[in-house]
Amino acid sequence: MAIVKLKKITFCGMLSDKRRILEQVQALGGLHLIPLAEPPGQEFGAPKNTEGVVEALKYLNACANKRHQIKDATRFDLERITEEVLAIKAKVRELTDIYDALSKRIDEVEPWGDFQLPETAQLAGYRLWFYIIPKRMMKKLEDCDWVWQTVYQNNLYCYVVVVAESEPPENSMPVVRTHTGSIPLSTLKTQRSQVELTLEDLQAERESLTRWITLMTVHFSEALDQADLAKAQTITRDEAGVFALQGWLPEAHTEKFLRFAEHHGLAVLVEDPDPGDNPPTLLDNPRQLAGGEDIVNFYQTPNYYGWDPSIVVFFSFSVFFAMILSDAGYAAVFGLILMFKWRSLGQSIKDRRLRVLAANTVFVSLVWGVLSGGYFGYSPSEERFISALKIIDINDFDGMMRLSIAVGVGHIALANAIRAYRRYPSLTALASIGWLLAVVGGFCFWLSATTDNDGLRQVGIILPATGGVLLLLFSSERGLKRWSDLFWRLLDGVKSLIGITQLFGDVLSYMRLFALGLASASLALTFNQLAVQVYHALPGPGLLFSILILIVGHVLNLMLCLMSGLVHGLRLNFIEFYNWSVSDEGYPFKAFSKKGVR
């Protein structure tokens, strides 16, 4: 759990060797370049349609059947093949929409049969009007003066044709008329068949183009590398036949770059970051816990001079998700899904990191679900062994409220403890200690009111009072050079005390853990009870309906739990926790290196 310490390195060499040196630096990798000159606002040799190439590669890679890869690049043209792939994708999308529309139209027309509407003159001015009428409403046609005939019927509807010169008024028919269109059923089926054949041809063309995937990937990566190289040449400082290249590098790689400079005859200077520098942030976490790093970078990259919250987020997100889910059965379902997708989630380093995070979250959710005794909304009877593991009662409102608030107090107290550690030896670290005492003391005072404990009440008075004094005296970074500075420091302390309302609101935000967990358990129980009621109310078919209610209900609840767990599990970390621990935002370390397949 650390932000990698960086060094600033500067190379100087002959201008005639600049391109060669930059190529070697790019091949070596691991250096975040610092612009020493303003780069021109232009593209540097990247493919004209970068997004199009990426889209084309994704489309080809998604093809189920791939051809043998071509290695000879003699006839290879990246732009031409990209255009062909995108044209096929667009045509397939268009024809798929047409196919779906034709299929829908065929389903609507098929009950009427295959017929060609006659010309109006052939029926002496009469026309055909079509109606789909529910069987229960057919009695309304008994007294109808119109000439009509039922041409088809099923268990629910009668398909009725009315012969009349003009459309019957709406109030004279049980339902509004149906538009069958003028295209015969056989023609619609022929059109759909032609579209289906064209789609098959396009799919064959797509499969044929998959033979270029490797060359497309390699050439695209090389084009991006050349673009990066061209851009790097514009941000060096060039004077009097000499160029200077500067960048940030991890401290552990210093020796490697010093050997590189010596090998190529370059002058080199390695420095620590100056106070006015703003280095990029490179996070370094154990492989098993690096999933939190990806979540942190997705929301906000911490500042180089700050701290890495990745591991805290890794574990706290899992705990929050588990409390919101509050069901071992649901956790087991997520576990089975993860096992089924485990191999496919290992295609990239980022996917493997998130896979470990998901596994940890499922494990914590399973443990919490067992401790809370929830299994798809059911609680085992006391006679069963597994019921002995239940030590948390979701329906104990007071207990769950205290637990949720305790989790929030611990989370925010940890945030302030970390901030105090980061501020040390500055006296402002005592202000963070003040907030820690305030939140812990306030919780103790609240507990004393519900448990009538005098010891907790005394702690709940002493800690917030001490914290308030620390906030009043040490919240300001203003120096004491004259007597008036003491007044301004105290005024800064008074202003910081206003934050007590935000502290109170942030702690109460953790109540959502209890509320969402209770909602999840209640929904699961409701679907179970509804299924039982239907089963007993409808002997025979009730079994089928009750099974459908269970499946649909629990799938819906699973989706709601997943959304709630993701949204609110991340929100409590990135809003409440970050507010008290992570202040300044940084920017990610981007290595100047070669990309793609090697």
Task: Please describe what this structure looks like.
The protein has helices spanning 18-28, 50-61, 78-109, 185-209, 213-234, 254-263, 291-299, 310-325, 328-341, 349-372, 397-423, 429-451, 454-474, 483-497, 500-509, 511-537, 541-581, and strands at residues 2-3, 6-14, 32-34, 127-134, 147-153, 157-164, 237-239, 242-250, 267-271, 283-284. Helix 1 packs across helix 5 and helix 8 runs antiparallel to helix 17 (541-581). Among the domains are: 118-180; 289-379 and 389-581, no CATH class. The chain is an alpha+beta fold and 598 residues long. The strands form three sheets. Strands 2, 3, 7, 8 and 9 form a five-stranded antiparallel beta sheet that branches. Keywords: Ion transport, Membrane, Transmembrane, Transmembrane helix, Transport.
Summarize the model shown.
GO terms for molecular function: ATPase binding; proton-transporting ATPase activity, rotational mechanism. Keywords: Ion transport, Membrane, Transmembrane, Transmembrane helix, Transport. The protein is of the alpha+beta class.
